[in-house]
Amino acid sequence: MNHRRIDLMATQPGKSSKMAVAVVVPTLNERGGVTDLIPQIKRVLNEYTTEIVVVDGNSSDGTANLAKDLGAHVIKQDGSGYGDALQLGFKFAHSTLKADITVMIDGDMTYDPKDIENMIDIVASGKADLVVGNRFASMEDGAMSLTSRWGNRLLSWFAKHAIGIRLTDSQCGLRVFRTQFTPTITRASGGMAYATEMIAEITQVGGRLMELPISYSRRVGKSKLRPVRDGLQILATMLRLVRDYRPLLLLGGAGVILVMAGVVLGLNSFYEWLTFGYVTHPPLVVLFSLMILSGVQLLSFGLIADMIKSLRRDFRRNIH
Q1: How many domains would you assign to the chain?
Q2: Strands 73-76, 20-27: parallel, antiparallel or unpaired by DSSP?
Q3: Taking the model in full, what pTM does it have?
Q4: Cβ–Cβ contacts within 10 Å for residue 17, how many?
Q5: Res 211: pLDDT
Q6: What distance in Å separates the CA atoms of residue 232 and residue 291, rounded to the nearest whole number?
Q7: Domain range spanning residue 200?
């Protein structure tokens, strides 16, 4: 598949005539939110050929039936997890609906559908391939707990410095992207960490990323988030992404630390040998020698892994 830079707005006579937009909504007992969300999406995106895809995780409150009655496509989720639901919806939008642009939005009314149109315009005009919302730009009081707020800030900081994802809010659940990137982003994990993997995968194949201020409100219904567990899962995924996309940082960094620590120990032993003519702690000689050798090996592995990563990235960009 070739991810060409296509100005969808310029090549089509009108939004409603040909531009197909698929809105993917993962749900689990979100009847209260879906009641208002689906009609609002239809009203806001009435100038496009819009299809709404609700991926339901076996809700017990009738969310799926309500969504179907409101005119949405409903997919029953066999697996579990936020990422799994999104990937099912993305595949449906790509393979069945043949959408030009795909939107992802939570079903709890925390996001305002009015923000979607500006995000679509950015992607359609060719300015970006993926647009991610920034909830911190306009957040209602009480919409996010202090723990979640600081957790999101920390994860976004880590994603920026460790993986190179330069976003203020890397975990935002309102996003718009070119549907042609779907094959790239549907081979990832199925949990909350998918939000980070999705961005990393698109940028790795040359996709352009942009962030847009959005509003964020109190949710309708009970939250399904588990801040500590989900945060640890996301952090573990980021470490894996560092291994895959920044191996020199991980292995090389560890190697440099070992070499430096070994040199410090070695200087102490060398000083003893120069001063007294012998080393008072012979085992330290073995220890610092092993540390330096291990550090050099890790640094070498990091360099090799970084070369492999670069070749893999270039290969993926060429085939896409």
Answers
A1: 2
A2: unpaired
A3: 0.77
A4: 10
A5: 97
A6: 30
A7: 8-245
